[in-house]
Write a structure and sequence with these properties.
With 312 residues, this protein is α/β, with parallel strands linked by helices. Helices cover 53% and strands 8% of the residues. It has a five-stranded parallel sheet with strand order 2-1-3-4-5, sandwiched between helices. α6 crosses α7. The relative contact order is 0.12.
């Protein structure tokens, strides 16, 4: 038996144990059904994902608290995955700067095979823990950083290798998978295993598993940013106004919080270079732009704390 044949058999044996790879015999004739019935069946499958995520909320919350503590000290949040999992990490990271005005270097998405892998498959990339080590080494990890390995199967060498390397460097590690007792969760300090069950199309983990991963990544980044003071209530007061829609949203947020009229909102935003939190502080605390900036800096960016300080 050749070594490649042996590896193939070992891999098939591993896949046979994974819930995400299981065959659904009741769907064996799905291609013969009317389109409406297929759509209803698929929708019913998707409806189960939120419940699977709910079962992991305590583990998700524990990971968020640990991530936020490190990010408050200047650490970074790094996602590492291959294929769909990697793309979801890159997506979540790319949405943080416009949503929360974060430095693009603070939330980073790594995908096995690099940027080309966002749109095409890079042969062998997901099978290389060494590639993950190289990608992370380029970032110069510190103990204040967090690396989240993302893999539906929980066995992808790139994701597991990323977590193992990061943990060896003292960084916080989180393993997000969709199978129980995964190697990824075992390798990480915080294991999150959202078991969504067999896919509508056998082994197509861009479906329920991908949806589950997107939901969890939404929670990791969004709630971490809430903890870091990037919101005021459920308003995105750190939004970066990089286009007309976001400039309109900025004006609307300032008006919602302060109750000020359009002209006052425009003056406050002009005095603070379009910074929403600063403009709110100018209007509610009656301070000028530089004073608002100082108060927010002293409050580590938390608007509620800055408002309290201004009123004391």
């Amino acid at each position: 038996m050749t070594s490649s044949t042996s590896r193939d058999r070992d891999l098939r044996s591993q896949l046979d144990t994974l819930t995400t790879e299981a065959f659904r015999p009741e769907l064996a004739d799905v291609d013969r059904l009317p389109t409406l019935e297929i759509a209803r069946l698929m929708n019913a499958e998707d409806a189960t994902v939120a419940g699977a995520v709910a079962a992991q909320v305590p583990a998700i919350a524990a990971a968020i608290d640990a991530i936020a503590e490190r990010m408050a000290r200047g650490g970074r949040l790094v996602y590492a995955g291959a294929g769909t999992a990697g793309r979801l990490g890159v997506l979540d990271a790319s949405e943080c700067p416009p949503t929360f005005n974060t430095d693009p270097a603070r939330v980073v998405g790594l995908i096995a095979g690099g940027p080309d892998a966002m749109v095409t498959s890079v042969e062998g990339a997901e099978d290389s823990p060494e590639l993950a080590e190289s990608d992370l080494a380029a970032l110069g990890l510190t103990p204040d950083d967090t690396v989240v390995g993302v893999s539906a199967s929980g066995r992808t060498p790139y994701a597991v290798g990323a977590v193992a390397y990061a943990r060896g460097r003292g960084a916080l590690t989180v393993g997000l998978s969709c199978n129980r007792d995964s190697a990824l969760a075992a390798a990480a300090e915080h294991g999150i295993e959202v078991v969504v069950g067999p896919e509508f199309l056998t082994g197509s983990t861009r479906l329920k598993a991908g949806t589950a991963q997107k939901l969890v990544l939404n929670m990791l980044s969004t709630i971490t940013m809430i903890r870091l003071g990037k919101t005021y209530g459920n308003l995105m007061v750190d939004v970066r106004a990089s286009n007309e829609k976001l400039r309109a949203r900025s004006r609307r947020i300032v008006a919602q919080v302060t109750g000020a009229g359009d002209e006052d909102v425009e003056r406050a935003l002009a005095a603070t270079d379009g910074e929403v939190k600063h403009a709110i502080l100018v209007l509610l605390a009656g301070v000028d732009g530089p004073t608002a900036a100082r108060l927010l800096d002293e409050a580590d960016g938390h608007l509620r704390a800055a408002l309290a300080a201004a009123g004391s």
